[in-house]
Write a structure and sequence with these properties.
9 strands; 2 helices; alpha+beta; Immunoglobulin-like; four-stranded antiparallel sheet
Amino acid sequence: MLVRCCLILLLCLGLNACALFQNRDPLNISVIGIDPLPGQDLELRMAVKIRVQNPNETPVDFSGVALNLEVNDQPLAAGVSNQRGHIDRYGETVLSVPVSITAFAFLRQAYGLGRVESLQGLPYVLRGKLAGGPLGTVRFIDKGRLDLPAPTGYAW
């Protein structure tokens, strides 16, 4: 009888635990800006600004951010930040994450760009995560194409 009660209790606890893992819509991520930062030696630094929108019923609390940026199918930049924050249900926030570009990644990009016909429409992939504890980490991905502004000429 005791074994049956324990099994029923474990079954109820297991079903209750499944309710904690609700289906969540993915976060909406948009890169909204890139600002230069001071670098060291052969390293380039930038602050990548992203808008994070939460389309879910439950808020997202985070205690760290990590980003990896690929351009033209090649790794370009990576960065982390120990920012803490809260995104309300159906809310949004803007985060600024410092990223580093090593000289090797820059040379790899330059070599790859030498083989493309145009700098317009280069594919990029931004992968990242908002750390929120053992069960609260939220991963995200943003894909798109970079449309770099055309150089302006001077008319004399």
